[in-house]
Automatic annotation (TrEMBL):
Residues in Kinesin motor domain copies: 20-301
Matching Pfam families: Kinesin
Cellular compartment(s): Cytoplasm, Cytoskeleton
Binding site for ATP: G106, V107, T108, G109, S110, G111, K112, T113
Signal peptide region: none
Protein's name according to its UniProt entry: Kinesin-like protein KIF23
PANTHER family assigned to the protein according to its UniProt record, in alphabetical order: KINESIN-LIKE PROTEIN KIF23, KINESIN-RELATED
GO cellular component, one term: kinesin complex
Family: Belongs to the TRAFAC class myosin-kinesin ATPase superfamily. Kinesin family.
GO biological process: microtubule-based movement; mitotic spindle midzone assembly
Keywords, comma-separated and alphabetical: ATP-binding, Cytoplasm, Cytoskeleton, Motor protein, Nucleotide-binding
Protein's organism: Diaphorina citri
InterPro entries assigned: Kinesin-like_fam (IPR027640), Kinesin_motor_dom (IPR001752), Kinesin_motor_dom_sf (IPR036961), P-loop_NTPase (IPR027417)
Amino acid sequence: MSTKPGKTPRRVNFQKSSDPLQVFCRIRPLQNAYEESCISVLSSTTIQLTPPDGSNPRYFNNKEVQYVFKKIFDTDSDQKQIYMEVAHPLVDNLIHGKNGLLLTYGVTGSGKTYTMNGSPTDGGIMTRCIDVLFNSILAYQPPRHTFKPDKMNGFEILSSDEIKQVRGVKTLGVKKNVECRVKDEEKIEQVDEDNVYSVFVSYVEIYNNSVYDLLEEIPEGGTGDKSKSTPLNNRLIREDSCQNMYVHGANEIEVTTAEEALQVLYKGQARKKMARTLCNKESSRSHSVFMIRLVQVRLLY
Protein backbone atom coordinates (compact mmCIF):
# COMPACT_ATOMS: atom_id res chain seq x y z
CA MET A 1 0.00 0.00 0.00
CA SER A 2 1.30 3.45 -0.80
CA THR A 3 0.75 6.82 0.76
CA LYS A 4 -2.15 9.01 -0.30
CA PRO A 5 -1.49 11.40 -3.21
CA GLY A 6 -0.10 14.73 -2.11
CA LYS A 7 0.98 13.51 1.31
CA THR A 8 4.63 14.25 2.13
CA PRO A 9 6.59 11.18 3.31
CA ARG A 10 8.22 11.31 6.73
CA ARG A 11 11.93 12.16 6.45
CA VAL A 12 14.70 10.78 8.69
CA ASN A 13 18.17 12.34 8.41
CA PHE A 14 21.04 10.03 9.44
CA GLN A 15 23.69 12.46 8.17
CA LYS A 16 23.60 15.87 9.81
CA SER A 17 26.24 18.38 8.75
CA SER A 18 27.47 18.86 12.33
CA ASP A 19 27.87 15.12 12.99
CA PRO A 20 31.47 13.79 12.64
CA LEU A 21 30.06 10.29 12.09
CA GLN A 22 29.48 9.49 8.42
CA VAL A 23 26.67 7.02 7.71
CA PHE A 24 26.57 5.21 4.36
CA CYS A 25 23.88 2.89 3.02
CA ARG A 26 24.48 -0.10 0.73
CA ILE A 27 21.48 -1.72 -0.96
CA ARG A 28 21.72 -5.46 -1.38
CA PRO A 29 20.40 -6.92 -4.67
CA LEU A 30 17.23 -8.98 -4.48
CA GLN A 31 17.88 -12.71 -4.29
CA ASN A 32 14.91 -13.61 -6.49
CA ALA A 33 14.02 -11.86 -9.73
CA TYR A 34 10.29 -12.07 -9.02
CA GLU A 35 10.58 -10.10 -5.78
CA GLU A 36 9.56 -6.46 -5.72
CA SER A 37 11.82 -3.99 -3.96
CA CYS A 38 10.37 -1.62 -1.40
CA ILE A 39 13.41 0.70 -1.72
CA SER A 40 13.57 3.58 -4.18
CA VAL A 41 16.78 5.58 -4.67
CA LEU A 42 15.75 9.23 -4.95
CA SER A 43 19.26 10.70 -5.09
CA SER A 44 22.87 9.90 -4.21
CA THR A 45 22.03 10.56 -0.55
CA THR A 46 18.32 9.71 -0.14
CA ILE A 47 16.23 6.55 -0.33
CA GLN A 48 12.51 6.04 0.14
CA LEU A 49 10.91 2.98 1.71
CA THR A 50 7.41 2.05 0.59
CA PRO A 51 5.56 -0.56 2.69
CA PRO A 52 4.68 -3.56 0.49
CA ASP A 53 1.07 -4.54 -0.04
CA GLY A 54 -0.24 -6.56 2.87
CA SER A 55 2.32 -5.23 5.37
CA ASN A 56 1.30 -4.92 8.99
CA PRO A 57 0.00 -1.35 9.56
CA ARG A 58 1.01 -1.65 13.21
CA TYR A 59 4.66 -1.29 12.16
CA PHE A 60 4.50 0.69 8.92
CA ASN A 61 1.27 2.68 9.26
CA ASN A 62 1.01 2.52 5.45
CA LYS A 63 3.37 5.49 5.12
CA GLU A 64 6.37 6.06 2.92
CA VAL A 65 9.52 7.16 4.73
CA GLN A 66 12.62 8.85 3.33
CA TYR A 67 16.10 8.36 4.82
CA VAL A 68 19.11 10.61 4.22
CA PHE A 69 22.70 9.28 4.37
CA LYS A 70 26.16 10.52 3.49
CA LYS A 71 25.96 8.44 0.31
CA ILE A 72 23.81 5.67 -1.13
CA PHE A 73 25.47 2.68 -2.81
CA ASP A 74 22.92 1.02 -5.08
CA THR A 75 22.90 -2.59 -6.23
CA ASP A 76 25.39 -1.82 -9.04
CA SER A 77 28.09 -0.51 -6.67
CA ASP A 78 31.14 -2.78 -6.49
CA GLN A 79 33.51 -3.62 -3.64
CA LYS A 80 36.33 -1.40 -4.91
CA GLN A 81 34.10 1.67 -5.14
CA ILE A 82 32.77 1.16 -1.63
CA TYR A 83 36.27 0.70 -0.21
CA MET A 84 37.62 3.84 -1.91
CA GLU A 85 34.80 6.08 -0.73
CA VAL A 86 34.22 4.65 2.75
CA ALA A 87 37.46 3.14 4.05
CA HIS A 88 40.39 4.49 2.03
CA PRO A 89 40.33 7.85 3.87
CA LEU A 90 40.51 5.95 7.18
CA VAL A 91 43.66 4.09 6.08
CA ASP A 92 45.17 7.41 5.03
CA ASN A 93 44.32 8.85 8.45
CA LEU A 94 45.83 5.83 10.21
CA ILE A 95 49.16 6.24 8.42
CA HIS A 96 49.15 9.91 9.41
CA GLY A 97 48.57 9.20 13.10
CA LYS A 98 44.80 9.55 13.38
CA ASN A 99 42.34 7.09 14.89
CA GLY A 100 39.43 5.74 12.90
CA LEU A 101 36.41 3.50 13.35
CA LEU A 102 34.35 1.65 10.76
CA LEU A 103 31.38 -0.56 11.61
CA THR A 104 28.68 -2.38 9.68
CA TYR A 105 25.13 -2.44 10.96
CA GLY A 106 22.11 -4.29 9.63
CA VAL A 107 19.77 -7.23 10.07
CA THR A 108 20.99 -10.79 9.58
CA GLY A 109 21.49 -11.64 5.92
CA SER A 110 21.77 -8.00 4.83
CA GLY A 111 25.31 -8.39 3.45
CA LYS A 112 27.52 -7.16 6.28
CA THR A 113 29.98 -10.06 6.07
CA TYR A 114 30.25 -9.83 2.29
CA THR A 115 30.84 -6.09 2.44
CA MET A 116 33.62 -6.50 5.01
CA ASN A 117 35.26 -9.75 3.84
CA GLY A 118 34.25 -10.07 0.20
CA SER A 119 35.47 -13.10 -1.75
CA PRO A 120 38.94 -14.35 -2.81
CA THR A 121 38.53 -12.69 -6.20
CA ASP A 122 36.81 -9.52 -4.99
CA GLY A 123 37.93 -8.49 -1.52
CA GLY A 124 35.80 -6.53 0.90
CA ILE A 125 36.58 -3.48 3.00
CA MET A 126 38.68 -5.33 5.60
CA THR A 127 40.93 -7.20 3.19
CA ARG A 128 41.45 -4.09 1.06
CA CYS A 129 42.32 -1.99 4.12
CA ILE A 130 44.97 -4.52 5.10
CA ASP A 131 46.36 -4.74 1.56
CA VAL A 132 46.58 -0.97 1.14
CA LEU A 133 48.18 -0.49 4.56
CA PHE A 134 51.01 -2.92 3.84
CA ASN A 135 51.40 -1.69 0.25
CA SER A 136 52.01 1.77 1.70
CA ILE A 137 54.50 0.95 4.49
CA LEU A 138 56.32 -1.99 2.89
CA ALA A 139 59.60 -0.10 2.47
CA TYR A 140 59.52 1.39 5.97
CA GLN A 141 59.09 -1.61 8.28
CA PRO A 142 61.72 -2.30 10.97
CA PRO A 143 62.79 -5.83 11.98
CA ARG A 144 60.12 -7.90 13.69
CA HIS A 145 60.00 -7.46 17.50
CA THR A 146 61.34 -3.90 17.39
CA PHE A 147 58.23 -2.95 19.37
CA LYS A 148 56.59 -4.92 22.16
CA PRO A 149 53.12 -4.35 23.70
CA ASP A 150 53.45 -3.31 27.34
CA LYS A 151 50.03 -4.78 28.32
CA MET A 152 48.84 -1.29 29.32
CA ASN A 153 47.76 -0.08 25.88
CA GLY A 154 51.25 1.12 24.97
CA PHE A 155 54.45 -0.20 23.43
CA GLU A 156 58.10 -0.57 24.39
CA ILE A 157 61.04 -0.22 22.01
CA LEU A 158 63.44 -3.15 22.29
CA SER A 159 67.18 -2.94 21.86
CA SER A 160 68.98 -5.04 19.25
CA ASP A 161 70.11 -7.46 21.98
CA GLU A 162 66.57 -7.79 23.32
CA ILE A 163 65.25 -8.46 19.82
CA LYS A 164 67.68 -11.36 19.44
CA GLN A 165 66.43 -12.89 22.69
CA VAL A 166 62.77 -12.84 21.64
CA ARG A 167 61.50 -16.24 20.60
CA GLY A 168 60.05 -16.92 17.18
CA VAL A 169 56.44 -15.99 16.58
CA LYS A 170 54.01 -18.75 17.46
CA THR A 171 51.69 -19.57 14.59
CA LEU A 172 47.97 -19.57 15.21
CA GLY A 173 47.36 -22.78 13.31
CA VAL A 174 45.20 -21.23 10.61
CA LYS A 175 44.71 -23.51 7.64
CA LYS A 176 42.83 -21.12 5.39
CA ASN A 177 44.82 -20.29 2.26
CA VAL A 178 45.09 -16.53 1.84
CA GLU A 179 47.55 -16.68 -1.03
CA CYS A 180 44.94 -17.63 -3.66
CA ARG A 181 43.20 -14.29 -3.75
CA VAL A 182 43.25 -11.11 -5.79
CA LYS A 183 45.07 -8.40 -3.85
CA ASP A 184 44.26 -4.70 -3.94
CA GLU A 185 47.28 -2.85 -5.36
CA GLU A 186 46.17 0.59 -4.15
CA LYS A 187 48.43 2.45 -1.72
CA ILE A 188 48.76 5.72 0.16
CA GLU A 189 51.31 7.90 -1.63
CA GLN A 190 52.06 10.41 1.12
CA VAL A 191 54.02 8.38 3.70
CA ASP A 192 56.59 9.95 6.02
CA GLU A 193 59.85 8.33 4.92
CA ASP A 194 61.60 9.35 8.15
CA ASN A 195 59.40 6.97 10.17
CA VAL A 196 59.37 3.21 10.62
CA TYR A 197 56.03 1.41 10.90
CA SER A 198 54.97 -1.81 12.64
CA VAL A 199 51.47 -3.29 12.60
CA PHE A 200 49.78 -5.04 15.53
CA VAL A 201 46.30 -6.57 15.40
CA SER A 202 43.89 -7.76 18.06
CA TYR A 203 40.40 -9.25 17.86
CA VAL A 204 37.78 -9.22 20.61
CA GLU A 205 34.18 -10.37 20.86
CA ILE A 206 31.37 -8.84 22.92
CA TYR A 207 28.78 -11.43 23.88
CA ASN A 208 26.17 -11.31 26.68
CA ASN A 209 27.83 -8.24 28.25
CA SER A 210 31.20 -10.00 28.39
CA VAL A 211 34.36 -9.35 26.37
CA TYR A 212 36.48 -12.22 25.03
CA ASP A 213 39.86 -12.28 23.31
CA LEU A 214 39.41 -14.21 20.06
CA LEU A 215 43.21 -14.54 19.78
CA GLU A 216 43.67 -16.02 23.24
CA GLU A 217 46.24 -18.81 23.35
CA ILE A 218 44.34 -22.01 24.13
CA PRO A 219 46.17 -24.95 25.73
CA GLU A 220 46.79 -27.99 23.59
CA GLY A 221 44.79 -31.14 24.25
CA GLY A 222 41.30 -32.47 23.85
CA THR A 223 39.57 -33.51 20.68
CA GLY A 224 37.97 -31.65 17.82
CA ASP A 225 38.39 -27.95 17.19
CA LYS A 226 40.06 -26.64 20.32
CA SER A 227 39.15 -23.05 19.41
CA LYS A 228 35.45 -23.89 19.80
CA SER A 229 35.52 -26.55 22.52
CA THR A 230 37.57 -24.58 25.06
CA PRO A 231 35.80 -21.55 26.58
CA LEU A 232 37.57 -18.20 26.36
CA ASN A 233 38.27 -16.10 29.44
CA ASN A 234 36.26 -12.96 30.12
CA ARG A 235 38.40 -9.83 29.78
CA LEU A 236 38.20 -6.53 31.66
CA ILE A 237 37.92 -3.11 30.05
CA ARG A 238 40.31 -0.61 31.62
CA GLU A 239 41.49 2.96 31.15
CA ASP A 240 45.11 3.76 30.33
CA SER A 241 47.21 6.74 31.48
CA CYS A 242 45.82 8.86 28.63
CA GLN A 243 42.20 7.99 29.53
CA ASN A 244 41.79 5.71 26.52
CA MET A 245 39.75 2.55 27.01
CA TYR A 246 41.27 -0.83 26.16
CA VAL A 247 40.69 -4.55 26.72
CA HIS A 248 43.14 -5.59 29.39
CA GLY A 249 45.12 -8.73 28.60
CA ALA A 250 43.97 -9.03 24.99
CA ASN A 251 46.69 -10.40 22.72
CA GLU A 252 48.19 -8.01 20.20
CA ILE A 253 49.86 -9.92 17.38
CA GLU A 254 52.59 -8.31 15.31
CA VAL A 255 52.06 -8.92 11.59
CA THR A 256 54.50 -7.97 8.86
CA THR A 257 52.47 -8.83 5.74
CA ALA A 258 48.86 -8.68 4.62
CA GLU A 259 48.81 -12.48 4.53
CA GLU A 260 49.82 -12.72 8.20
CA ALA A 261 47.15 -10.19 9.17
CA LEU A 262 44.46 -12.13 7.30
CA GLN A 263 45.55 -15.39 8.94
CA VAL A 264 44.96 -13.76 12.33
CA LEU A 265 41.62 -12.33 11.18
CA TYR A 266 40.36 -15.72 9.97
CA LYS A 267 41.57 -17.44 13.13
CA GLY A 268 39.52 -15.05 15.24
CA GLN A 269 36.48 -15.41 13.00
CA ALA A 270 36.57 -19.19 13.48
CA ARG A 271 36.15 -18.64 17.23
CA LYS A 272 33.15 -16.31 17.03
CA LYS A 273 29.83 -17.48 18.41
CA MET A 274 27.60 -18.41 15.47
CA ALA A 275 24.07 -19.77 15.12
CA ARG A 276 21.68 -20.67 12.33
CA THR A 277 18.72 -18.38 11.58
CA LEU A 278 15.93 -18.45 9.01
CA CYS A 279 17.79 -15.84 6.96
CA ASN A 280 21.38 -16.95 7.49
CA LYS A 281 22.81 -20.40 8.20
CA GLU A 282 25.91 -18.86 9.85
CA SER A 283 24.80 -15.74 11.69
CA SER A 284 27.03 -14.13 14.30
CA ARG A 285 25.45 -14.01 17.75
CA SER A 286 27.83 -11.34 19.03
CA HIS A 287 29.60 -8.10 18.20
CA SER A 288 33.26 -8.36 17.26
CA VAL A 289 35.99 -5.73 16.91
CA PHE A 290 39.12 -6.26 14.80
CA MET A 291 41.69 -3.63 15.77
CA ILE A 292 44.68 -2.55 13.69
CA ARG A 293 47.33 -0.52 15.51
CA LEU A 294 50.09 1.16 13.55
CA VAL A 295 53.14 1.92 15.68
CA GLN A 296 55.37 4.53 14.09
CA VAL A 297 58.60 6.04 15.36
CA ARG A 298 60.82 8.66 13.74
CA LEU A 299 64.32 7.57 12.85
CA LEU A 300 67.24 9.40 14.44
CA TYR A 301 70.24 10.12 12.25
